[in-house]
Design a protein that fits this description.
The complex is a heterodimer.
Chain A (H helix, E strand, L loop, with lengths): L3 H7 L3 E13 L4 E13 L3 E5 L6 H8 L7 E6 L2 E2 L5 H11 E4 L11 H11 L4 H14 L15 H13 L5 E5 L7 H18 L2 E5 L3 H4 L4 E4 L6
Parallel strand pairs in A: 3-8, 3-9, 6-7, 7-8
Antiparallel strand pairs in A: 1-2, 1-4, 4-5
Helix pairs in contact in A: 4-5, 4-6, 5-6, 6-7
Chain B lengths: L1 H12 L1 H33 L5 E6 L7 E2 L1 H8 L3 E9 L2 E3 L11 E5 L4 H4 L3 E3 L1 H9 L3 E5 H7 L6 E6 L4 E13 L8 E5 H7 L9 E2 L1 E6 L4 H11 L7 E5 H44 L1 H10 L3 H43 L10 H27 L3 H8 L1
Parallel strand pairs in B: 5-10, 7-9
Antiparallel strand pairs in B: 1-12, 1-13, 2-11, 3-5, 3-12, 4-8, 6-9, 7-10, 8-9
The chains are: A alpha/beta, B alpha+beta.
Chain lengths: 233, 392
């Protein structure tokens, strides 16, 4: 997390734009419309919580947002470029530079230490070694895990693992961090710790966060909430 | 760089599994190289045996002897260019502790003619001349001299077994064969010296173990027949054979077994390939979430594929290197000397051929990589969407 403000000024305001996005899963027997005419913009500094009951299409929406899945109808724009116009390699590069991702679980590579896990995105973005070390340390300090530097994921608690995952998601200063139920497998105390950390990251570094959650408490930390109900909001 | 780090960390993380895989592959390489060494030693031995050199011995058994004058008679037969003769002399160097594992192949030979019949040898003419003039002189193969630390001028005390007594022999020269064969591992002294030491009453006086003769290559088989026909009406019948046919006959029983062993070797390789592929399939299944996470970070399908294949390649290389060194230790330093000692006339050389080691390593690499292509492809196809659904 170095020089974040400088980078912010270079970014365009809208990071992801959804226009009339619909997703239909169909088989021979039936057609299941998961998302219907969803439109919204995700701008720099946003902290958005996407909520809704199970089966409302939250994860599908998340997949479509970052190009893991394609919409049946409508258009998604990443940094003013239509996702449908991007080749697979371009999309991968966009993710490499602009995206941090945090899953509910299974986030960390078990064979790597905390340091190595957080270092991975920097390696992928060809950050020089000398810079990597300080950047990783600073980022671990933000999530309060500087002292767990050498630990393996198996030696961490669930909450600590999620904080390392957040550190890894933000270490390369991405445009946006996407989270899928980041507090879903944590107790209240750890969940609050994570949410507080996210709030600090969002406010201090102006990092855009989009979070899918079932957790009502989590929505209190978000600046805006998208409530999905039967595929529409 | 990050991929290599990941691969190494994965190998270190599941140590037991990695060690098991490396051990299994190493064992297969050892088996494969052992079979290849047998095959190679056999081929080398046969390749260096001549079609135009004929051995003649007592038809009844190798253990019985022939009269000395048989050598002269064979030498006079049409088609025979030069004949020489020898007696096996079983004994050991009681004063030498340098190489107790290597059997000293001692022969009492006709020093005047011996090297004429073995033209593939290289030796110093001056030393040859001295040998011919020194009754107790010894001409020793260079590699034997090296193994026993013999130098020209040394007096060697041999304790005879077939010819009991203590024999003080003097090293007067060394020789080297252009081919690594049995002939390149001998300790030769004068038959005249041996014969003159025997009492008149000794039944072995003026007797020889066999005659070796160089014949015309174009009709060597007919000459073989001619030699045996010549002695058909004598009191001692002979059995003659070209050097190459002699070894072929001796080894004929083993050829079928060698074929079977080679097929087993191929199957071993295939089995290890399948086992490794299965192991990698399990690993891929265990690590699908990790691959998904790596994809979200910007790892491409090719990157994921190369992670899986890279691990297999690295394991195969490690196993090949280990397998090679185990084979060198087991074959070259343990089994090899025992075989050379006990079967030196068939396998004068029993060492892992480097070319076979390269073939083994390449085969392992190609097979294991090929068998891992499917798991690697599956890993590269990990669907992040499905992973997210699994979480929800």
């Amino acid at each position: 997390m170095t020089n974040n403000t400088a980078l912010v000024t270079e970014k365009t305001n809208t990071i992801i734009k959804l226009e009339n996005v619909s997703k239909v899963f169909s088989n021979k027997q039936e057609e299941n419309r998961v998302l219907q005419n969803i439109s919204f913009d995700i701008c720099e500094g946003d902290f958005i919580a996407i909520v809704g009951p199970s089966g409302s299409g939250k994860s599908t929406l998340l997949n479509i947002l970052v190009g893991f899945d394609t919409p049946t109808f409508g258009e998604v724009t990443l940094h003013n470029k239509k996702i449908s116009d991007l080749k697979s390699k371009q999309l991968t590069n966009w993710r490499k530079e602009n995206l941090g991702f945090v899953f509910q679980s299974h986030n960390l590579i078990p064979v790597l230490s905390v340091y190595q896990n957080v270092e991975l995105p920097l390696l992928l973005n060809n950050v020089p070694k000398s810079e990597r070390f300080t950047t990783v340390l600073n980022t671990l300090e933000v999530v309060g895990l500087k002292e767990k530097f050498f630990n393996r994921p198996a030696q961490l608690s669930g909450g600590e693992e999620q904080r390392v995952a957040i550190a890894r998601a933000m270490v390369h200063n991405p445009s946006i961090i996407i989270m899928d139920e980041p507090t879903g497998s944590l107790d209240r105390k750890n969940a609050n710790h994570i949410l507080n950390t996210l709030k600090i990251i969002n406010q201090k570094y102006n990092t855009t966060i989009v979070m899918v959650t079932h957790d009502v408490k989590a929505t209190e930390y978000a600046k805006s909430v998208i409530d999905l109900d039967k595929g529409s909001c | 760089m990050e991929k290599l780090t990941l691969i190494l960390e994965y190998i270190k993380y599941k140590k037991l599994r990695s060690i098991s895989i490396i051990t299994a592959i190493s064992f297969v390489i050892l088996c494969f190289l052992l079979l290849q060494t047998i095959s190679h030693a056999w081929e080398l031995s046969l390749e260096n045996r001549r079609d135009d050199r004929v051995a003649t011995w007592n038809k009844a058994t190798y253990a019985l002897t022939l009269p000395r004058e048989y050598a002269n008679e064979i030498n006079a037969l049409p088609g025979v260019q030069k004949a020489t003769f020898a007696n096996y002399f079983e004994g050991e160097d009681i004063g030498n502790l340098y190489n107790q594992n290597m059997l000293l192949n001692i022969f009492a030979v006709d020093s005047k003619t011996y090297f004429d019949v073995f033209p593939e040898t290289t030796l110093n003419p001056d030393e040859l001349a001295i040998w011919k003039q020194t009754p107790n002189g010894v001409m020793v193969a260079k590699r034997v001299a090296k193994a026993f630390n013999y130098r020209v001028g040394d007096i060697v005390t041999i304790k005879g077994k077939t010819f009991p007594g203590t024999w003080k022999l003097k090293i007067v020269g060394t020789y080297e064969s252009n081919f690594k064969t049995y002939a390149d591992s001998l300790f030769l002294f004068s038959w005249d010296y041996l014969n003159s030491s025997l009492q008149e009453s000794d039944p072995r006086k003026n007797e020889i173990s066999w005659v070796m003769s160089l014949v015309e290559n174009s009709n060597s088989l007919e000459i073989v027949q001619e030699i045996d026909n010549h002695f058909r009406n004598k009191s001692v019948l002979t059995q003659s054979m070209t050097e190459k046919n002699m070894l072929s006959m001796y080894m004929s029983g083993f050829i079928g077994i060698l074929d079977v062993i080679n097929i087993i070797g191929v199957f071993l390789m295939l089995i290890i390939g399948v086992l490794l592929a299965n192991s990698m399939s399990l690993k891929v299944r265990e690590r699908k979430f990790e691959f998904g996470v790596l994809k979200t970070m910007g790892f491409t399908k090719q990157d994921i594929c190369s992670l899986v294949l890279g691990e297999v390649v690295l394991l195969s290389i490690l196993a090949s290197v280990l397998g090679y060194f185990i084979s060198i230790f087991f074959i070259d330093f343990t089994l090899g000397p025992m075989i050379v000692k006990n079967m030196g006339n068939v396998f004068p050389i029993f060492e892992v051929p480097l070319s076979s080691a390269v073939i083994a390593a390449s085969t392992v690499l190609i097979l294991t990589t090929s068998f891992t292509l499917i798991p690697a492809y599956r890993a590269s196809q990990v669907n992040i969407t499905n992973l997210l659904k699994a979480v929800e």
